[in-house]
Amino acid sequence: MHKIALNFEDGVTRFIDASADETVADAAYRQGINIPLDCRDGACGTCKCFAEAGRYDLGQEYIEDALSEDEAAQGYVLTCQMRAESDCVVRVPASSQLCKTEQASFEASISAVRQLSDSTIALSIKGEALSRLVFLPGQYVNLGVPGSAQTRAYSFSSLQKDGEVSFLIRNVPGGLMSSFLTGLAKAGDSMTLAGPLGSFYLRDIRRPLLLLAGGTGLAPFTAMLEKIAEEGSEHPLHLIYGVTNDFDLVELDRLQAFAARIANFSFSACVANPESQYPLKGYVTQHIEPRHLNQGDVDVYLCGPPPMVEAVSQYIREQGITPANFYYEKFAAAAA
After folding, report:
1. What residue ranges of the chain are covered by domains with CATH 3.40.50.80?
2. Record's superkingdom (predicted)?
């Protein structure tokens, strides 16, 4: 059986299992998810989706009007014909609601909460239900704030292991989640999460990667690096991690451990505050070297606050370089 991630246009991701002898559309239908289709014969094109990752057989029973040769070369598939030959990621151009599915919800409890610095909290939650949680490294969930009806969105900072997942959470003065975690939270407290969500996730590595993290935007990258450490990569990977103040720097030991495990991974960290005692000062853009952009043959992943995303986008344009792919996620803190 292969694991297929179906990414819907409303941000919801659902995972299904597909055997080698069934089409993706049939596998989805078997598991209660109705990918839009009419003919099932490769003639109408209604079930056309985009395969972002994985190996698959396109099938032979379709016509040019339903899927052209150019579309197939780009990665488009007809799910009524597609048969997976590995785990795959498929983008579905429809909402999860239209496909009669919804984001999954899970109950778990706090296994650890630690204040890594004045600005960053590490949260781990664990539960039997989470052993069924599957997500793409880089995605996020909506975590319920205990004692309220509100949720906050956080990227996973680890892969799921033995029913446990972790997050890096910015400690926002007056923030609803921050106030709970710093003042009330203890091991064993119940929490709910709904997801996974988001289109920011690690794709197949086909060229060098440049990873750019701002503050707790480091979280999705540590999850990605766990995956890369497990599977390896023949391409060079470089992470630049930028923060505002010295005390914002966290998880450097973890990054060092990744550098020891992943032969072609390197990283640097910089602090924007000019009064910093850290060796590298300034913004992330000041530490991007020409080799990191590889004359455009590079996939750039960026997670940080909106001003950082805009600054990096402008910097790359000014270099006259267009990366092969540029994936980014903006985040902003929420107060009470």
Report:
1. 209-330
2. Bacteria
Average of per-residue pLDDT values in the chain: 92
SS (H, E, C) the chain: CEEEEEEECCCEEEEEEECCCCCHHHHHHHCCCCCCCCCCCCCCCCCEEEEEECCEECCCCCCCCCCCHHHHHHCEEECCCCEECCCEEEEECCCCCCCCCCCEEEEEEEEEEEECCCCEEEEEEECHHHHHCCCCCCCEEEEECCCCCCEEEEEECCCCECCEEEEEEECCCCCHHHHHHHHCCCCCCEEEEEEEECCCCCCCCCCCEEEEEEHHHHHHHHHHHHHHHHHCCCCCEEEEEEECCHHHCCCHHHHHHHHHHCCCEEEEEEECCCCCCCCCECCHHHHCCHHHHHHHCCEEEEEECHHHHHHHHHHHHHCCCCCCEEEEEECCCCCC
**Does domain 209-330 sit in CATH 3.40.50.300?**
no
Instruction: Please write the tens of the pLDDT for every residue from 226-249.
Output: 999 999 899 999 999 999 999 999
Kindly report the pTM of this predicted structure. Answer: 0.82
Whether domain 2-92 has CATH 3.40.50.2000: the reply is no
The whole-number average pLDDT for the span 2-31 is: 92
Range 104-197 classified under CATH 2.40.30.10 = yes
